[in-house]
Design goal:
This protein is an alpha+beta fold and 427 residues long. The relative contact order is 0.07. It folds into four domains: 2-52, no CATH class; 66-148, no CATH class; 155-187, no CATH class; 191-423, 2-Layer Sandwich (Creatine Kinase, Chain A, domain 2), CATH 3.30.590. The radius of gyration is 42 Å and the shape is extended. The longest helix has 20 residues, at 373-392. It has helices at residues 2-9, 14-18, 183-186, 228-238, 263-277, 302-313, 318-325, 373-392, 401-409, 416-423; strands at residues 23-24, 42-44, 50-52, 92-93, 105-106, 123-124, 131-132, 137-138, 143-144, 151-153, 158-160, 190-191, 213-221, 242-245, 253-258, 281-282, 290-296, 354-355, 361-368. It starts with a helix and ends with a helix. The chain contains ten helices and 19 strands. Helix 5 packs antiparallel against helix 8 (373-392), helix 6 (302-313) packs across helix 8 (373-392) and helix 8 crosses helix 10 (416-423). The strands form six sheets. Strands 12, 13, 14, 15, 16, 17, 18 and 19 form an eight-stranded mixed sheet that branches.
């Protein structure tokens, strides 16, 4: 018998023999009687292995204490809304809008009015994420007061949509009581020369490198005795994306001023606008009209502005600059030769080719006024190309027209109006 166990369990069978009364054996040599099963029996389940089966006493299942899912602390007073402990819970009780409070406990209330969603009567702005109360909301454009560009008429105490013609007296036409004989001067919607377009109109588009472009196109009235239809036409064409301004350098006209737009927005606007709105106006065939293009300052560091100044004022590029500009004006846009060692971010004479007196923009003043959309777009594309090129080119090339034109051609169709204008000899 010892040899039998030694073959199964190894030479040390003394421990096995101690538990023999509790072994269930398979084989003729083992007892046929099975003793009562102990609490921890040893079972011989085949001829080559043995296992000890331990039987743990069963314990009744207990209900776990509630645990806060945020801080993992045990709590018996969790919030019924968020299941957090009183320390972590930030739910609030709605005070109720009416005499009877709704007394609802909610995760959050409206930041504008302090009520729950059921009681809140605030408005969501369609432009920004703000939720505002009625006093801070415009029902005309469905925007908050910060985003609203509607015109407010003090005469009728009402707001009017963008592009609504406004009398120079500051009222809408329904409220204006200006005398009829002053119709051409008063009911024209032309703002004072010092009006800033960004106070009336938002930015449009998403330009490359953040370079927004704003156009000031000076025009004179033609021979038509009626001025008002032409002005109203342009107010309608701009549709709140620009304004009309007076200009002291003009004999009998106004400036068409866009807000800052991306290049793509300009390329979409000017062809249709000038086709529909040029009647009754002159620009190229005058001695007074120019076209100015403003560019955002923020994306341009001091060195880049210096490269732009050198390029535009350099004698080496002069003939090409005058070709695209359509003029060489010593009165309104003087060329003053620059050097990179004399980089300026501000100049004392606004009537230079590049005016640096504006805080938020640099102004290209070189262009002659035109009502040809292809030339307007050629000018705008040229300005964008110069600034984009100056951002990436080395200072050693800032007087190199060939280096610049190679860059512009490498941009595909982006500057097609400018390149076509130059290829055609400025026509």
């Amino acid at each position: 018998m010892p040899d039998f166990y030694e073959g199964i369990f190894g030479p040390d069978v003394s421990q096995i023999l101690r538990y023999r009364p509790y072994i269930t054996a398979i084989g003729d040599d083992m007892p046929n009687t099975v003793p009562p099963e102990p609490s921890s029996p040893i079972v011989l389940n085949d001829m080559f292995s043995a296992e000890i089966r331990l039987t743990a006493p069963e314990t009744p299942a207990s209900t776990p204490e509630p645990v806060c899912v945020h801080c993992n602390s045990r709590t018996e007073d969790s919030c019924s809304v968020c299941d957090l402990c009183p320390t972590c819970c930030d739910c609030v009780q709605c005070p109720g809008r009416w005499a009877e409070s709704c007394a609802a406990t909610v995760r959050a209330v409206c930041p504008a009015c302090g009520y729950c969603d059921a009681c809140c009567e605030c408005y969501d702005c369609e432009t920004c994420p703000a939720r505002v109360q009625e006093n801070d909301w415009c029902s005309v454009c469905s925007q908050c007061n910060e985003c609203c560009d509607c015109f407010y008429c003090a005469g009728c105490d009402e707001r009017h949509s963008e592009g609504t013609p406004v009398c120079a007296c500051g009222n809408c036409y329904d409220c204006c009581d200006c005398p009829d004989e002053d119709e051409d001067e008063a009911l024209n919607g032309i703002r004072p020369y010092n009006a800033n377009v960004i106070n009336y109109c938002p930015f449009y588009g998403t330009p490359e490198n953040g370079l927004y472009l704003g156009v000031e196109l000076e025009v004179e009235f033609g021979e038509s005795p009626s001025r008002l239809p032409t002005v109203l036409k342009w107010a309608d064409l701009l549709m709140g994306r620009g304004i009309l301004k007076q200009d002291g350098s003009l004999s009998d006209g106004f400036e068409i001023v866009t807000s800052p737009w991306s290049l793509v927005e300009h390329q979409a606007f000017w062809p249709d606008a000038l086709r529909e709105g040029r009647a009754g106006l002159r620009s190229w065939n005058t001695s007074t009209c120019g076209m100015h293009v403003h560019v955002s300052r923020d994306p341009l560091d001091v060195y880049t502005i210096g490269k732009v100044q050198v390029f535009i004022n350099s004698p080496a590029t002069r003939k090409y600059i005058c070709q695209i500009a359509g003029r060489n004006s010593d009165r309104w846009a003087k060329f003053v030769e620059k050097n990179l060692v004399d980089i300026q971010t501000y100049n004392h004479d606004r009537y230079e080719a590049i005016n640096l007196q504006n805080r938020a923009t640099i102004e290209f003043r070189i262009f002659k006024g035109t009502l040809e959309s292809t030339h307007v777009l050629a000018n705008v594309e040229f300005v964008d190309a110069v600034c984009q090129w100056a951002l990436v080119t080395s200072g050693q090339y800032c007087e190199d027209w060939n280096n610049f034109i190679t860059y512009a051609r490498g941009m595909g169709e982006k500057y097609s109006h400018f390149l076509s204008y130059m290829n055609n000899g400025g026509e």
